[in-house]
């Protein structure tokens, strides 16, 4: 298992139940893992025609549920795929699967949510040959990140496989066709490192093959004397929710974050660097292309601080409870015009001003 996704083995995963919504019958069932199969005529199997989400669950509550469900529905819309269910229904399927596997007390549940366009009547790429609705598969597992990786840190190597524009690759949504990332991963394996560091078509640093990437540098100008975070721009990279939440947590705590283009030279000269993703959160990078980053410590003090900020954000989100996530989904299912009216009604009216008074 790659270091960014290294886990503590858990025997309970051998007997998990997989949640599946059949696209033809529209029936949702919980099926033992060994018996959970898809047809050879499934769109995802034949064509990679599907979308997915990697999700964390803690104490029975989906972490950042709104962001993950909204991204999935946006991806489905981009793919011209009608899921034929609401956000609330999908979230209820997730919770039903978690409950059936007795995962309500665990902090270390990871879910792979996969949606295939559905069953084909013949091997053919045209979506018109699809029968019924999309197939939905929910695979929950007990996955505790291997703590030794945080102490060891990650080694990266730049690969020749590039991140391209979003109109020809999957950077703007989580598409099942991961050929670009897999090719980068294969090269990283060959080079004996933990992840591939990928550049865009102009040579700017973008992301790793399965995680987002950021660096820490000394601030300049108004930031002189501070450590600041540099994150590659959104262009030509994975639109990670953990990336967004890491930036959000840093800025809320007063840590400056700059989303900008930067070079490999600036990576080599960074004070610290780190990868981030739904499963690993933040992990220090100690080496890039054979060059030690900063003092090579893992976890680096700044990354450790950022991880603390991020964990606080996660804890706050989980503390809202399951009902809050379902309410978020219910509101997101409403047309925006209705939500806007509801928000307008909740705003406090301004106090009228009398005779020019500001009191």
From TrEMBL:
GO terms for molecular function: catalytic activity. One of its GO terms (biological process) is carboxylic acid biosynthetic process. It holds the Pfam family Aminotran_4. Belongs to the class-IV pyridoxal-phosphate-dependent aminotransferase family. This is Branched-chain amino acid aminotransferase.
């Amino acid at each position: 298992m790659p270091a960014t996704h290294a886990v503590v083995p858990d025997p309970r995963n051998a007997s998990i139940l997989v949640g599946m919504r059949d696209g033809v019958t529209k029936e949702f069932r919980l099926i033992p893992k060994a018996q959970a199969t898809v047809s050879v005529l499934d769109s995802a199997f034949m064509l990679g025609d599907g979308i997915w989400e990697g999700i964390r669950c803690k104490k029975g509550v989906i972490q950042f549920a709104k962001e993950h469900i909204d991204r999935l529905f946006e991806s489905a819309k981009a793919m011209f795929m009608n899921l034929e269910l609401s956000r609330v229904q999908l979230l209820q399927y997730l919770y039903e699967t978690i409950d059936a596997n007795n995962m309500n007390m665990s902090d270390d549940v990871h879910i792979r949510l996969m949606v295939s366009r559905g069953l084909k009547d013949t091997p053919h790429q045209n979506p018109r040959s699809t029968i019924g609705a999309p197939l939905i598969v929910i695979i929950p597992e007990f996955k505790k990140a291997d703590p030794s990786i945080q102490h060891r840190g990650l080694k990266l190597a730049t690969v020749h496989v590039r991140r391209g524009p979003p109109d020809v690759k999957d950077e703007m949504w989580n598409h099942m066709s991961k050929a670009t990332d897999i090719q980068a991963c294969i090269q990283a394996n060959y080079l004996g490192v933990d992840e591939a560091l990928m550049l865009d078509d102009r040579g700017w640093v973008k992301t790793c093959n399965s995680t987002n990437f950021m660096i820490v540098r000394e601030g300049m100008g108004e930031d002189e004397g501070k450590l600041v975070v540099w994150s590659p721009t959104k262009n030509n990279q994975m639109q990670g929710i953990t990336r967004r939440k890491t930036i959000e947590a840093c800025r809320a705590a007063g840590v400056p974050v700059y989303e900008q283009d930067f070079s490999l030279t600036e990576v080599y000269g960074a004070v610290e660097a780190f990868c981030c993703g739904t499963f690993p959160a933040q992990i220090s990078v100690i080496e890039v292309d054979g060059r030690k980053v900063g003092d090579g410590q893992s976890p680096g003090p700044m990354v450790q601080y950022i991880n603390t900020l991020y964990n606080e954000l996660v804890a706050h989100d989980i503390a809202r409870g399951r009902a809050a996530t379902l309410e978020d989904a219910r509101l997101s299912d409403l047309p925006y015009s209705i939500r806007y009216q509801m928000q307008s009604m909740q705003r406090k009216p301004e106090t009228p001003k009398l005779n020019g008074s500001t009191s």
